[in-house]
Amino acid sequence: MNIVYNWHVTEKCNFTCKYCFAHWNHQQEIWKDEARVYSMLKAMKNAEHSGPLSIQLPPHTLSTRVNFAGGEPLLLGKSLIGFACKSQEMGMKTSMITNGMLLIKFKEVAKYMDMIGISIDSFCDETNEKIGRLSKSGRTLRKPELKNVIEILKKENSNLRIKFNIVVNKYNYQEKIVSSLLELKPIKIKIFKELPFGSNSNGINEEMFQFFLKNNSTTQTELYIEDNSDMTHSYLMIDPLGRFFQNGNNYDYKYSEPIHKVGFEEALSSIEFNANKYFDRYATGV
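Request: output the structure for the sequence above.
Response:
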């Protein structure tokens, strides 16, 4: 079983999604300090053998995966590629969540990734514009371009696994998109209910979420569905400052002290984390 750390390496992004919860409003992101980053990555690896997660499973059953998220992690360019390479050298698995717009520019990253998750909410330009899923120049990731991106990544790394993430929100809940994504042969598709946060404190209602699920049901592959309650206190998340964090309420986060200041175990033990919910998810490969 993997211990998966979702490290939000930066809050900077080339999209402006209205539902985005990755906002910290600070500039001191630790990715700029390689020594600090490598120390944190080493602590992640060491946690396989000691700490609050390792004691809950039999010895030698854990491995570690670093999931690079954002913002948009590919805005770090060569630095991100270096961190992924270092993570694999340390014996960890690697993955990334990206909006996909920079994958061709930094296609080399595929060599150092076990899995890449691409966030796709719609193939409709109008819907993506309403959500904010487009670049400053107005570009969106259409299906033919996405197919081309995946083909290029697979040439870099034939063992690379691709998954898709969909956030169901008030702009796309009436659309059918899963069948189109299945044509691109992902290993899985994760469907999230929009998480209320900050100025977007209402999210969507359950009726809208269930409408999307019914419209996009399939027998071709298993869909991984996460409601708001599934996401709360069940992810190991690290912010751009190197702090563990969890959702405190709809308006703010609860943070640990920075890992490099207080140490890995103390930082992790200071936040709310539901290990049972966590292991239930990753025991099924989600």
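The mean pLDDT is 87.
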